[in-house]
Amino acid sequence: MSSQRVDSPSNHGPIVSILTWFLLAATVLAVVARVTTKMAISKRLTNDDFLIFLALAFSIGQAVAVSLQTSNGLGQHEAALSAFQMDNFYKFDYASNLLFILNLCFAKLSVLQLLRFVTPVKLHLRLVLGAGAFVTLWSIASELASALQCKTPNTWKVIGNQCFDRAAFWNAYGAFNLITEAALLILPLVILWKLQTQAKKKAVIYSCFASRIVNLSSKSNGKKEKSALSSNNLSHHKHFRHLPDVSTVISANHDVRETDSDSQKSSARIIKYTRTWEVT
User: Fold this and answer.
1) Is the dihedral of CA 231, 237, 242, 243 positive or negative?
2) Which residues pair with 76 in a beta bridge?
3) What is the full per-residue pLDDT of the chain (280 aa) written as tens digits?
4) Neighbouring C-beta atoms of residue 61, cutoff 10 Å
5) Which of 56, 82, 112, 157 sits at 20 to 30 Å (Cα–Cα) from 183?
6) Which residues have C-beta within 8 Å of that of residue 144, sequence separation ≥ 6?
7) Exposed / middle / buried, residue 143 (Cβ in 10 Å: 0-12, 13-18, 19+)
């Protein structure tokens, strides 16, 4: 029995599909573990859970779109593709981009909603709400820009159509993405800084949020491959997309009101509810 190569110099599509579905499976398992643990301990779901469900739904759609791209030439040289395949490739690329933006938006909002639950400090809440407003407006603007990247009615059609500078757009998107990821690393540190608890406990809690540093390193190059669409080699168009940022999941009681002992209350709320976290 002859063995079939998963990857070849002329077709890198299969390895992209394998990695896409592997990462999606890991993400689904992480969300299931999160929900199961949280329901077993706190017996309820909160707004951050519903936001991550939305992120997961968009991530599944994105994985399907990338898989369909591999069936239509992703990872192959353009010269080897038919006009029909190229047409489908750019349609699925268009859909994948829109889903990608929504995926990241709701994943980030889930983390911010979590931070909103665990602190009663007014300054912290203002920072979290400000970051949430920025992420929302930035995502809406990016979604509209991506949806209208080329002249209507065929806004998905990149070749033979009038489009804006897509490489510049995705570079700008990537830059703002890094800014928001940095904010999601800094905000938990600000909230935890003055907690009246042991440094070891602070370190354990923050290590969950600090796992997002992997996102910073990966997203620094995450959208630069878009410029490869101007070339004729789709094997260089990498679609190792970032699946949901299911980061630091903590169930928080958000009925506590602010008093003069904000630091003590933040400590109690965070320590009490860090029994239901998971990190990916």
Assistant:
1) positive
2) 11
3) 444 456 666 677 788 888 889 989 988 998 898 888 888 888 888 898 999 999 999 999 999 999 998 888 887 877 777 888 888 889 999 999 999 999 999 999 999 998 888 788 889 899 999 999 999 999 999 999 999 999 888 898 888 788 888 889 999 998 999 899 889 988 888 887 776 677 777 777 777 676 666 665 555 555 444 444 444 445 444 444 444 444 433 333 333 333 344 444 554 454 444 444 433 3
4) 17
5) 56
6) none
7) middle
Query: What backbone phi and psi angles, to 5 degrees, belong to 8?
Result: -145, 160
Q: Alpha-carbon distance 250 to 116, whole Å?
A: 11
DSSP-assigned beta bridge partners for residue 11 = 8, 76
What are the structure tokens assigned to 228, written together? 């490869």
What distances in angstroms separate CA 212 from CA 30, 120, 180, 269, one per listed residue?
15, 24, 11, 22
